[in-house]
Amino acid sequence: MFKKNPDWLGLVEMKVEGEELETFINHCVENDIALSEIRRTSSGTKLQATIRIADVKPLRKVAKMTNVSVRFGKRRGLYLFTRQWRRRFGFIVGILAFCAVLVLLSQMVWRVDIEGASPGIEHEIEEWAANIGLKPGQPQWELPPEAEIQQRVSEEVPGATWIGVERQGTTYQFHVVEQHLAEEEDEVAPRHLVAEKNGVIRDIYVEHGRAEVAPNAYVEKGDVLISGLIGREESENMAQTAAIGDVRAETWYRGTVELPMEISGEVFTGERTRSLDFQLFGNEWTFWGRDAEHLFEQYQTTTDQLRIPLYFTDIRLPVERTSYEEKTIVTRTYEEDEVQEIAKQLGERQLLRNLDSDAKILSENILQEQRDSGTVKLSILYEVEEDIAREAPITQGD
Question: For labelling alongside 39, which of 64, 208, 286, 356 has CA 20 to 30 A away?
Fold first, then answer.
């Protein structure tokens, strides 16, 4: 009887007070009410003990029979947990329902992405996917595995070299590599490739035809570089073809650049300020940067029109913001070496604008320099490597 009960049964502490405590304990034994953790005061009229929750009701009857008063205190054990669970039953059910819905939604298809496909192929894949049920709102467990989807879509959708299928959470992704059929080349009439300008051959590459020149050979404008006639030269019936190739040669250009020895210009100092003007009913009030115009001797202004909202309202105030950036005049005098270097760079940029993108400048040499009233005039010779071949028809005389 006095053995301590396990906590999971549900226990409650109580205080008993009265003159018949021994009688009360005997009646508890007779009614199979187990008391544990019994503590009795020195006066003998008070008793503290712990009983099971299930014994509370019969204990009340024993207390009435023995004329003692019973007060219950702290509860613990499984009873307390189940009681709280009953009170929060709706909340717990709501959490479980939310988790169930969340798991269900995570197993649905919510998006189908198609990457790398042209509009036509993309439309075909969308229709094919919809036919097998692969569309938003479809449960994933009703769909075949990704490997099977990839094999079927590759076989049933023409026009694509390869289609990869990947599932990422609730999204299915199709990665498409389309077939690109080689375009038929237009038939080209027989022709030569001739020199477009004078130069020294640096490199020659022949795809179709016969080379007529070799590297380091000097050619003039109009000379045949790659011939479209194939066969023995002594034969009267030489085959004709469209000469195709690349002939790079060293060419020369002469340019003139004129520069002043002294250059003046405006530069910004980095100092800046701004002003804010409030406009209303045709009037303007400056409430920030009133003296901004007088801070710098020379400046550049930038004005922006703003509409600033008032807090907690839909009203927008018209505000003009003006930025002031200080600038100054700087004069620079160049040395002779600097002028020559700048002139070379300017002439190089001007020349490259008039050449093909694959041309490159090999060197530049100053041929002549003239000075007049603070101005330098330079004559520069540029050596350039470029493709000099151009097409020319095969004539009867060839």
Answer: 64
Q: What percent of the chain has pLDDT over 90?
A: 12
The per-residue b/e assignment along 5-39, b for 16 or more CB within 10 angstroms, e otherwise, is beeeebbbebebebeebeebbebbeeeebbbeeee
Q: Are 359 and 351 in contact (CB under 8 A)?
A: no
Query: 220 lies in which domain range?
Result: 191-247
Residue type for 333, please? T
Beta bridge partners of 177: 162
Of the residues 178, 200, 232, which one is the last residue of a structural domain?
178
Sequence letter at residue 369: E
Task: Give 346-387 pLDDT, tens digit per residue.
Answer: 888 888 888 888 899 998 888 888 887 778 888 989 999 999
CB contact at 8 A, 289 and 275 = yes
d(CA 266, CA 252): 38
CB 10 within 8 A of CB 81: no
Strands (E), 261-341: 262-280, 283-288, 299-309, 316-333
Residue with tokens 């000099």: 388
